[in-house]
Amino acid sequence: MFGIWGHPQASRLTYYALHSLQHRGQEGTGIVVTDGQNMQGRKGEGLVTDIFTVQSMAELKGTAAIGHVRYTIGGCDAGYENVQPLLFRSSTGSLALCHSGNLLNGPELRRQLEEQGSIFQTSSDAEVVAHLIRRSRLPALKEQVKSALALLQGAYAFLLLTEQELIAALDPQGLRPLSLGRLGEAWVIAAESCAFDIIGARFARDVQPGELIIISNQGICSENLSNAPSRNLCAMEYVYFARPDSNLAGINVHTARKELGRQLARECPVEADVVTGVPDSSLSAAIGYAEELRIPYEMGLVKSRYVGRTFIEPSPSLREQGVKLKLSAVRGVVEGKRVALVDDSFVRGTTGRRITRLLKEAGAKEVHLLISSPPIKYPCFYGIDTLSSRELLAANHSIAEITELIGADSLHFLSEEGMRRVLGGGLCMACFTGNYPTSLPKL
Ligand code: AMP
Ligand code: SF4
Question: How far apart are the first and last CA of the chain?
Answer without folding.
Answer: 29
